[in-house]
């Protein structure tokens, strides 16, 4: 089996390490793996986020549940109890998968790149202290419409629960996007080059990780500028531009998270299986 892997070029560091051998020469990108529990979580995690990010807003706009210029995902979430429930459930499921995938990946990074442990620690801290709580916060605090800021004077707004929910939603959303941008910097510009240099990255993972991280870093400041004009100008043009930037950003988060470590999850499933699906369910004992 070891010879077959080496001859076919599938020299996975983790696989050979589990077999008690080393790669033939120098750092070789990992490419071998299997679809185990970790890979299944990575495969499933992107589905609800993608559907909620791309498909459901189109349905809401087609049904007339939202209208320009207020067509952000936040407006779709707040357009009815059905949307609120679906977004809360779907984004929560995706975030559970995100935390699991990055927990497995960060353990691997820490083992293979001890010199970059501080960067790994910063990445994990941002994920659990800001990213995950703020995603739950932005789906938990809903509001009636995006222009609550202009409906009453300042003192009345302070006593308006709708404005309070709007402010909390905007706060959590802003922190979420800024945190994701900071994580993309650590992930794409600090950790990824070191992983590539050591031959610990599959070419497919490298492509999605690098391209997605750069897109996030470029789109985040653009999104902040567009949001400013959307909030204070409020024309249909800014609404369209904002929703395009927002959808692109969120989809890049999904791509970097799940496609950026897909092959790594498969390799970890080979080296150290986490769950044997054949053990799920009852088996009749042989007499």
The structure class reads: mainly alpha
* Rounded average pLDDT: 80
For the record, the count of structural domains works out to 2
What value does the Rg take, in angstroms? Answer: 22 Å
The number of distinct β-strands equals 0
Largest pleated sheet: none
Q: In whole angstroms, how far apart are the ends? A: 35 Å
Determine the fraction of residues in helical runs and give it as a percent range: over 70%
How many distinct helices? 11
- The shape is globular
| Strand content bin | under 5%
Which regions have little confidence, pLDDT < 50, spanning 5+ residues? 1-31
Along the chain, the helix and strand elements come as HHHHHHHHHHH
Transmembrane segments: 39-62, 82-102, 123-143, 163-187, 207-230, 236-261
Keywords: Membrane, Transmembrane, Transmembrane helix
Would you kindly provide a written description of the structure presented here, covering whatever features stand out?
- With 287 residues, the protein is mostly helical.
- It has two domains: 1-32, no CATH class; 34-271, no CATH class.
- Helix content is 72%, strand content 0%.
- It has helices spanning 2-7, 13-18, 37-63, 73-77, 81-112, 117-140, 154-158, 161-197, 203-232, 236-259, 262-271.
- Helix 3 (37-63) runs antiparallel to helix 5 (81-112) and helix 8 (161-197) runs antiparallel to helix 9 (203-232).
- The longest helix is centred in the middle third of the chain and has 37 residues, at 161-197.
- The chain is globular.
Structural topology:
Layout lengths: L1 H6 L5 H6 L18 H27 L9 H5 L3 H32 L4 H24 L13 H5 L2 H37 L5 H30 L3 H24 L2 H10 L16
Helix pairs in contact: 3-5, 3-10, 3-11, 5-6, 6-8, 8-9, 9-10
Keywords: Membrane, Transmembrane, Transmembrane helix
